[in-house]
Amino acid sequence: MRTRKQELGDKNIVGARVEQQRKTIGMKQKDLLAQLQIRGVDLNSSGLSKLEGQLRGVADYELKAIAEVLGVSVNWLLDIEK
After folding, report:
1. Are 33 and 45 in contact (CB under 8 A)?
2. Dist. CA 82–CA 79, nearest whole Å
3. Which of 3, 21, 26, 57 has the maximal Cβ count within 10 Å?
């Protein structure tokens, strides 16, 4: 597994949780990207890497699709689930 070269950014609060859940379920970035494309989210590998590294913002429709693919709630991604 590769380690992150850059420090985490501050453009979103979900990136770390997206990466955490993706790795927990054993999903590769390319598999997540493929599932997002099926749901109409056109994101490339650079964009996903920046999202996970908190270097880009996340649109609401992206957040919803990511939650669906990863099998978690949007609230969990936002770290507001009780």
Report:
1. yes
2. 9
3. 21
Check: CB of residue 72 under 8 Å from CB of residue 18.
Answer: no
CATH 3.40.190.10 is right for the domain spanning 15-77:
no
Which residues have C-beta within 8 Å of that of residue 7, sequence separation ≥ 6? none
Query: Is pLDDT of 8 > 90?
Result: no
Q: What is the mean pLDDT of residues 54-66?
A: 97
Token pair of 30, please? 């390319």
> Is the alpha carbon torsion for 31, 8, 77, 12 positive or negative?
negative
Q: What is the pTM of this model?
A: 0.89
* Alpha carbon distances (Å) from 79 to 1, 13, 15, 23, 35: 25, 8, 11, 17, 23
The residue-averaged pLDDT of 24-52 equals: 97
